Amino acid sequence: MPSVKPSTVLGRQLGDELRRFREQAGLSTAEAAEVLDCTKGKISRIENGHVPVRTPDLIALIHAYDVAEPEARERLASLARTANRRRREGWWHQYGSVLADTYRDYIEMETICDGIKTFQVQLVPGLLQTPEYGRAVTVASRAWQTPEEIDQFVQVRLARQERLTGDDPLELWAVLAEGVLHQQVGGQAVMHDQLEHLANLAERPNITVQVLPFSRGAHPGMFGPYLLLSFPRVSALDLVLTETPTGNIWMERESEVARYRDLFDDARTSALPPTDSLSLIRRIAKEYRP
């Protein structure tokens, strides 16, 4: 067995898809095990993301499950390559000393997803932060102590933002509680630059920003931030990441994901339209002007 264990989240994503194709093909775990000349336990571990999937095994399963669509084949191959590499070839590997496992998992998923929807209660999302704002947030978290650790984590956040540009940019839809615009992270000058940056990004075709105003009162999303990650149409296995002070939590069950889809739909329909949100962001940015 390879010494590098794949990311649990990535492994589960791949395993869930393989299970779906196996069931569509009408094969049992015992019959799938015959294809690989292995035990039913190994098939179960593959489908639960507990063990890597070697390339020869993946090819054999793809043939046995009659996965004919080229897009589906490439999707499975891409997931397997990414999971089995883990972080050895990812740009984030060089920052391993300042990244928790869950955060590394998130970065890996961020590199292969095609859309993110997020609701934030107090902070501008990391993908939309300026370096100064990101630094102020990192210092305030107290999770990193030395200047070197803080610098490295800020660099990670900035490197992640490259997903918003290029030939195939990520689709990002962010709904921000109005308090995000008033929480003075880093001081007035930092907030002015951050809100101007946010407004400029919101004008890009792949980025939507909405503000949920104070006037909306109590709402279902006020209990905490979350992110919904979606993937190319071959996979319907979306993921949810909730953020807490002690760590992040992945949710993968369809019932849980559906609940967060409903929460986001409620947030975006309750929020100001994008054009009105942009006007509000720019107006508040002017109030921070030094």
Automatic annotation (TrEMBL):
* Gene3D superfamilies assigned: lambda repressor-like DNA-binding domains
Which CDD domains does this entry report, sorted A to Z? HTH_XRE (cd00093)
Specify the domain of life of the species encoding this protein.
Bacteria
Q: Name one GO molecular function term.
A: DNA binding
Residues forming the HTH cro/C1-type domain are 18-72
A Pfam family hit: DUF5753
Q: State the protein's name.
A: Transcriptional regulator
What species is this protein from? Answer: Streptomyces atratus
Q: What is the lineage of its organism?
A: Bacteria, Bacillati, Actinomycetota, Actinomycetes, Kitasatosporales
